[in-house]
Specification:
- The protein is about 50% helix and about 20% strand.
- With about 210 residues, the chain is an alpha+beta fold.
- It has a single domain, classed as Roll (Nuclear Transport Factor 2, Chain: A), CATH 3.10.450.710.
- The termini are far apart.
Length: about 210
């Protein structure tokens, strides 16, 4: 495996926040995932994403605000954010009305993109290497990698990639076997159980302001 597949620990640690948000029912008819074989296509996709993020992070002339804006675009393009958003609300998604669903989706896209972009905006210089890939099922390829950083144990990460009508998308990321988005989902559903979809929408609005 060659060196082009390198990017920062901040990238991978925050990508792991995307972990458990797999596809769930949507407000509109979602295109079914297409079959994807372990032909190297998913590896190339993950490697290209890493190269793009590193180029942005290492840009000495760009301001932090400019880097954050570019990173937001990268993450919105590379992740199946709408599927992530739907899964994060569990059964409460089906109980929400269309107006609530659309507003939540809009806020969640901004929330996730801002979360990732802010965490990645300061380049730390740690490295990530793609190790290989394996087929999880007919629709999903797992791209395995390893984070190396000085004086700390290596961290294994796995990117789960699917082919959609919009091209390859990351639908899940694990770090050392742990999906941190399960924690995010638990956080969201706790708010939903107490305050409903309107309560979660308000919380996401406040997070943008704070």
């Amino acid at each position: 495996m060659t060196a082009p597949a390198r990017f920062t620990t901040r990238l991978c640690a925050s990508l792991a926040v995307a972990a458990a948000l797999l596809a769930a029912p949507s407000a509109h008819a979602a295109d079914p995932p297409q079959q994807l074989a372990a032909t190297g296509e998913a590896v190339q996709f993950v490697r290209a994403l890493g190269d793009e993020v590193v180029d942005i992070l290492k840009s000495g002339e760009a301001s932090r605000k400019a880097r954050t804006t570019k990173l937001r675009g990268v993450f919105n393009r590379a992740f199946d954010v709408d599927a992530m958003a739907r899964f994060a609300t569990g059964r409460f998604w089906r109980e929400a009305n269309t107006t609530q669903q659309l507003e939540y989706l809009r806020l969640f896209r901004d929330y996730v993109a801002e979360l990732y972009a802010n965490r990645f905006a300061d380049y730390g210089g740690q490295s990530f290497e793609v190790i290989g890939e394996r087929t999880l099922d007919d629709e999903t390829i797992v791209v395995a990698g390893r984070i190396d950083q000085a004086q700390k144990p290596s961290t294994r990460v796995e990117f789960r990639v699917r082919k959609t009508s919009d091209g390859l998308k990351i639908v899940d990321v694990y770090a050392d076997g742990l999906s941190l988005l399960i924690t995010k989902r638990d956080e969201f559903t706790a708010v939903l159980a107490k305050n409903g979809m309107d309560g979660l929408i308000e919380r996401l609005r406040q997070s943008r302001q704070g």
